[in-house]
Sequence to fold (124 residues):
Amino acid sequence: MAWKAQNEISSSDAKRIDNAITQVDGQRKNLIYQLGEAFYKANKKNEDVDATYKVMVDNINKLEDNRKVWINRKMKLQGMRFCDGCGNVLPYESCFCNRCGVKLEPVAEELQELEGVPNPVETI
Ligand SMILES: [Zn+2]
Fold:
């Protein structure tokens, strides 16, 4: 037996309530995002983080590394790289930084596979 509304409500009441629900949903989503961001910041270097969250924290760490790889690839195409020590922009082939003097390591170019998540980045 189908449920049937007992009263008609005006379209303006329905619209007002739907807008309130949309607002609550948005606030809820925003707070969950903030909760995740705070949890991640507190646990991104925590090897003992609960297994439930470990894969997610590891994947976010990998995404941050992959972001750097993409930036490095773009810099390389422009014939440049960043200094590992001070962030100075240098010619790609540089062995030392001309600002801080640090010996430069090879630029990270390998993307990391995420666990349990399809990795579309290499198809770009
Ligand atoms: Zn430097």
User: Anything to note?
Assistant: Residues 45-124 form one domain. The pocket of zinc ion is lined by residues 83, 85-86, 88, 97, 99-100, 102 (CB under 6 Å). The two ends are 52 Å apart (CA to CA).
